[in-house]
Amino acid sequence: MEKKLKKVQRGAAVGFVILKILRIFLLIGIVATIAALVILAVVNENDLPLDAVKDGKLVLDMQDLDLSQLNLDAVPDVGGLIQDGVLTLDLKDAKLVIMLLVAAGILVLAAIYVLLLVAGNLFKHMKAEDTPFTAGNVRRLNLLGILNVAFWACSIALGYFVVSEIVRRLALPGDSVSVSLSLSSLLIALIFFFLARLFSFGKAQGEALAAAQTAPAPVYEPAPAVEAAPVYQAPVPEPAPVAEEPAPVIEATPAEAVEPPAEPEA
Known about the structure:
This protein is mainly alpha-helical. It has a domain at 2-47 and 92-213. The protein contains 4 helices and 4 strands, in the order αββββααα. The chain has helices at residues 2-42, 91-128, 135-169, 184-214; strands at residues 53-54, 57-61, 82-83, 86-90. β1 (53-54) and β2 form a beta hairpin. α1 (2-42) runs antiparallel to α2 (91-128), α2 runs antiparallel to α3 and α3 packs antiparallel against α4. The model is unreliable at 74-80 (pLDDT under 50).
């Protein structure tokens, strides 16, 4: 049992280190993205050192670009932005759209960072505790499931808002905005909820086993003595009264000593 526990702890330690490294890179990406957002907010779009900027508009001749890998015939005339092979885009609206996309990216990275942080905390406790089946780990697994469901719902709302703003800012065609729904987050949430139930069951089993091992041996108290029923004793008869001394026996005279009566004479 201890060998299996050591394997679990080593695996949790490796997972904790990997998630910590991912969080560091993710944190660097979040800081860089925030810096890019600040730069976009500060810089005036009219001051961009681009030859294609004219009167606050970006004018690009699609024919001058190296688009050898792109089939220009397949590029649609998006809302009239591309006319005669020339892309005309309002820099202010384009800047707002880019800032919106960058802000949405920051939110997505922050959500992933929170998930990695909770998962790393789970691995941290699994490598330090004597058993992975603890109440704290059950709560963390449930939290991961709830976070996945919440992030799934927020991603739908955020995607709808971003796409709507892009369509509105760039005057793209289409009255309705469609957002693709990904069920991967829901599937991951269901897995975390199932693992939480599994860990809860393991916790209950471990507590029952520990209670059975540490329970004191039962002490059997002697049964209370039952008083025996009184033995029936027959009444002892009173001794018979002593009879008075018998009258003295008169000894008979021996027969030979008794003379027979004389026979009468004829």
